[in-house]
Amino acid sequence: MSAKLFEPYQINNLILKNRIVMSPMCMYSCHNEDGMAGDWHYTHYTSRAVGQAGLIILEATAVTPQGRISPRDLGIWSDAHVEGLRKLVSMIQAHGAKAGIQIAHAGRKAELEEEIIAPSAIPFNDQMKTPKEMSLSDINDTVLAFGKAAERAKQAGFDIIEIHGAHGYLINEFLSPLSNHRTDEYGGSVENRYRFLKEVIAEVKKVWDGTLFVRVSANDYLEEGLTPDDYVTFAKWMKEDGVHLIDVSSGAVSPAKIHAYPGYQVPFSEKIKHEAHIATGAVGLITTGIQAEEILQNNRADLIFLGRALLKDPYWPRTAANELGHPIEPPVQYERGWK
Ligand code: FNR
């Protein structure tokens, strides 16, 4: 059987060798709280490139120190970060994978000693810190920090930038009325809540003409929160603003009960793909080759993002290929022992 999972995929001017994406996952492994890539990152990400994933997206990488989820997150807030990231990119690309980076700001979900910032001074829950409401100059500075991060990502040689707009971090906090109670031009109407992301995309695109993804949480799972329909609107605007693919996750902007089961977020990807006419990635409890193949063949997503399955099995592409009866080429070094 010829599996779509292993067909090359062209997006913008980039060709991925297959449809398997390593989903961004924080590793909390920077020593000295300096955001620098180190041995763990080189080993961990390169293993998945050896394992034949088509695209590796680095974990949420902070655009400012204050935007880290934890003190041990990767960072891209200074020029000093470029060298380590460049090494990581070349190690990933050496195995035929493309390299992406998720640029992020944690907003009110930053678990740091210092002051944290968000659209409104509302904590995520009663265990977490109350953020400072961002002033217009905080907003402007943060938009510029995303632009600087994109410039550095370009210097490091990344093939793809993914803007982290999901999981209740800063951009998501602006989008959702649950976390954004502003009364200025960044809050209130849908257009106003989208404004921060719109400015981030525009700032990134000033320096980045490459492929651009945005990860979203397409459902808040709460009565007053955002729904997949709202995200169809946002996705249409993102397409107009030059985004190439929406990576469709869900939840985590405010505490909510989520019923998670295999492929539970795939319907959101399918809806956005067909109603906003933009490429999408599906993610969330996708664990087998057959499941991935079903999603692609039924046109419910263009790419398959894998998180925990790739943590457990760096050779998941080979496992899926065997399952689908679609042999794939090994890395040359493994030619005698791959089958
Ligand atoms: C994650 N996830 C995540 N998502 C994201 O957008 N940025 C991130 O940095 C992280 N960090 C992270 C760390 C770890 C250890 C895990 C397990 C997950 C979410 C991840 O990308 C993915 O969306 C979910 O794990 C669901 O997919 P799976 O794991 O069911 O394939």
TrEMBL record:
<keyword id="KW-0560">Oxidoreductase</keyword>
<protein>
    <recommendedName>
        <fullName>NADPH dehydrogenase</fullName>
        <ecNumber>1.6.99.1</ecNumber>
    </recommendedName>
</protein>
<dbReference type="GO" id="GO:0003959">
    <property type="term" value="F:NADPH dehydrogenase activity"/>
</dbReference>
<keyword id="KW-0285">Flavoprotein</keyword>
<feature type="binding site">
    <location>
        <position position="102"/>
    </location>
    <ligand>
        <name>FMN</name>
    </ligand>
</feature>
<comment type="similarity">
    <text>Belongs to the NADH:flavin oxidoreductase/NADH oxidase family. NamA subfamily.</text>
</comment>
<feature type="binding site">
    <location>
        <position position="28"/>
    </location>
    <ligand>
        <name>substrate</name>
    </ligand>
</feature>
<feature type="binding site">
    <location>
        <position position="215"/>
    </location>
    <ligand>
        <name>FMN</name>
    </ligand>
</feature>
<dbReference type="InterPro" id="IPR023663">
    <property type="entry name" value="NADPH_DH_bac"/>
</dbReference>
<dbReference type="InterPro" id="IPR044152">
    <property type="entry name" value="YqjM-like"/>
</dbReference>
<dbReference type="InterPro" id="IPR001155">
    <property type="entry name" value="OxRdtase_FMN_N"/>
</dbReference>
<comment type="function">
    <text>Catalyzes the reduction of the double bond of an array of alpha,beta-unsaturated aldehydes and ketones. It also reduces the nitro group of nitroester and nitroaromatic compounds. It could have a role in detoxification processes.</text>
</comment>
<dbReference type="Pfam" id="PF00724">
    <property type="entry name" value="Oxidored_FMN"/>
</dbReference>
<comment type="subunit">
    <text>Homotetramer.</text>
</comment>
<feature type="binding site">
    <location>
        <begin position="23"/>
        <end position="26"/>
    </location>
    <ligand>
        <name>FMN</name>
    </ligand>
</feature>
<feature type="domain" description="NADH:flavin oxidoreductase/NADH oxidase N-terminal">
    <location>
        <begin position="4"/>
        <end position="324"/>
    </location>
</feature>
<keyword id="KW-0216">Detoxification</keyword>
<feature type="binding site">
    <location>
        <begin position="164"/>
        <end position="167"/>
    </location>
    <ligand>
        <name>substrate</name>
    </ligand>
</feature>
<feature type="binding site">
    <location>
        <position position="60"/>
    </location>
    <ligand>
        <name>FMN</name>
    </ligand>
</feature>
<feature type="binding site">
    <location>
        <begin position="307"/>
        <end position="308"/>
    </location>
    <ligand>
        <name>FMN</name>
    </ligand>
</feature>
<keyword id="KW-0288">FMN</keyword>
<dbReference type="InterPro" id="IPR013785">
    <property type="entry name" value="Aldolase_TIM"/>
</dbReference>
<keyword id="KW-0521">NADP</keyword>
